[in-house]
Amino acid sequence: MSSKSRLDRAYKTAKVVNFDDSSKIVLFSDCHRGDNSFADDFANNRNIYFHALKHYYAEGFSYCELGDGDELWENLSFESILNAHKNVYMLMKLFHEQDRLHMIWGNHDMVYRDPKYVEKNLSTYFDPKIGEDVELFCDIKYHEGVVLKHSETGQELFLTHGHQADWWNYLFWKWSRFMVRILWKPLNVMGIADPTSPAKNYKELIKVERRTKKWIIENNNLITIVGHTHRPRFPEPGDIAFFNDGSCVHPRSITGIEIENGEISLIKWQIATTDDGTLKIVRVLLEGPRKLIDYKTD
After folding, report:
1. Contact between 149 and 17 (Cβ < 8 Å)
2. What SS3 class is residue 261?
3. Residue 51 to residue 48: CA distance in whole angstroms
4. What is the pLDDT of residues 156-178, one digit of tens each?
5. N or C, which end of the chain has less CB nearby within 10 Å?
6. CA nearest 159: which of 173, 143, 171, 175?
7. pTM > 0.70
8. In whole angstroms, how large is the CA radius of gyration of the chain?
9. CB 67 within 8 A of CB 32
10. CA-wise closest residue to 271 among 255, 256, 252, 284
């Protein structure tokens, strides 16, 4: 199966979410939430991420996570990740309970494409305070893709993880998972990067982006928003409509994409220092806002 056929399938089977100019949606991906060990890349940014997500919840945004939310290559079970970052999952639970949470699986959490696995591991968790299981993400569904469809203009935005254009990490993800657990996790602690990851291999990154752009061109320049490579991308109207929201494991910052008032923006959340030496978490606008309709092709 080629990159084209994998992306075709993700698009054709995508969950359709209607939106309009009053809708507010935030996209993050590649959180790689782990067990808070030395190998947990998310741990360094968890306070930034939690603060940002609290902001979006309070402001009425819906949250779309574009894959690799949970690091299930390095970690054997979701339980250890939940225990390490319970405040994050309790906040995500609030989004889910209000039907404001849309989840996509990536290569590092590809086990979530199995509904039975999701139901068994994410529906409930054991609460030691009361000594019994309580609801977590009851009836949650993971998807390979999500299509945001504007209810007035009919314009579509295709959201997926992006590993469909990375044949090794799509077809041989179990082998990659095995190598990460046995070899690359301990080496990662010592600062040695996994060469099979496009996020850490520039030549592979370029190949993945090129395959995705080719698919976008063949599909009438459909706005496509991915993660996977961890490299933020924000094209101008008229260019190839290839967006990437970056990741939540950048050094000391996270990046994402906001959709609000019919416009799209690339944003970053980071820790800044005030003149009196106080540290605070701030939102920085990197690109945009640009009107979505300006990317529409007839």
Report:
1. yes
2. coil
3. 5
4. 999 999 998 775 555 555 656 65
5. C
6. 143
7. yes
8. 18
9. no
10. 252
